[in-house]
Design goal:
It contains 13 helices and eleven strands. By secondary structure, the chain is of the alpha/beta class.
């Protein structure tokens, strides 16, 4: 059975409330937490976007679980700064912090005013950042001139073991590329056969034997109509195809792009049900596909109710 964790949504809650959610998730029996490092929320209805790195220190101190964060080094963040931030958390909480690196979204990265490069260029920059961060964690003094510039950088506070650095991918092509350099793959939830294809692509690239991590988007509420409404209100943008998710710049643009999305459309990307047993079945599909860690992301704003119900009913069923 995969590790069953909880996804903490910085885009939807103030940091203080989100801290209370992860403490509740810890008490309920979830085995880990992941979050995404955003500057803006996806939609105005989401309502928040706290600074993940400040929050992570408090969350690690307040709980006993491992934590991971998805980050996009190279524009809004210089890789040496992210390497320092990750090293500090990994030194303070050995074995409990990991990070995922991705090529980013204009929604967050455009705030620097820099040009938003095409995907191939973003991938090249990401790989440079990964190499820089690993060299710094190894104690090297780094000078690098490429798509990012580093001069005479050296980390003096380092963990005994560097943090796990996994690669973020939502397409099979990116998953295969990530397999060449990442310690694991993190991707979004999808049906069983599609998940198997993602994993096969990662393995083709060199990821055989490495962990597969899934952010499992779901909407649970005691009544089916509420579950569907919550998913549509908070996460309808998830249906947008092509490069839209990576190129739109502001929450109001995501609002405009998703104005004709229906609740039925959202059900194609988010697992929606009032039946806890059905949610258990969906999670078990990941186990059958070979997934190592599943982070449950209830997209509605009924988090405490979700944590309690899944802690009481879903987690014991999965472990049984």
């Amino acid at each position: 059975m995969p590790l069953i964790g909880y996804h903490a949504s910085h885009e939807q809650y103030p940091p203080s409330e989100l801290l209370a959610h992860v403490r509740a998730a810890d008490a309920a029996g979830f085995e880990g937490v992941m979050c995404a490092d955003h500057f803006h929320p996806w939609l105005e209805e989401n309502g928040h976007s706290g600074f993940a790195w400040s929050w992570l220190g408090a969350a690690l101190q307040a709980t006993s679980m491992p934590f991971g964060v998805v980050n996009a080094p190279g524009d809004r963040y210089h890789p040496a700064i992210i390497a320092q931030a990750a090293a500090t958390l990994a030194e303070m909480y050995p074995g409990r912090f990991w990070m995922a690196a991705g090529s980013g979204e204009a929604l967050n990265e455009h705030v620097t005013g820099n040009r938003w490069p095409p995907k191939a260029e973003r991938n090249e920059r990401l790989k440079e950042c990964v190499d820089v961060m690993r060299a710094l964690w190894n104690g090297e003094t780094v000078t690098h001139h490429g798509r990012v510039t580093v001069e005479d950088a050296c980390l003096y506070s380092r963990p005994k073991d560097p943090p796990r650095l996994v690669g973020a991918a939502v397409s099979e092509a990116t998953a295969e590329w990530v397999g060449r350099w990442a310690d694991g793959l993190i991707t979004t939830g999808r049906p069983r056969e599609a998940m198997r294809r993602m994993i096969e692509a990662f393995h083709r690239g060199g990821g055989e034997g490495k962990p597969i991590i899934v952010q499992h988007g779901l909407s649970w509420a005691p009544h089916e109509a509420d579950a569907r409404r919550n998913a549509h209100e908070q996460w309808r943008f998830s249906t947008l195809g092509g490069d839209v998710l990576w190129t739109l710049r502001m929450p109001n643009e995501f609002h405009s792009a998703s104005r004709f999305v229906t609740p039925e459309d959202v059900a194609g990307t988010i697992r929606i049900s009032s039946d806890v047993g059905r949610h258990v079945e969906w999670i078990l599909e990941y186990a059958e596909a070979g997934v190592s860690e599943v982070y449950c992301f209830n997209v509605g704003k009924n988090q405490r109710e979700f944590i309690e119900v899944f802690g009481d009913r879903a987690l014991p069923s999965l472990r049984g």
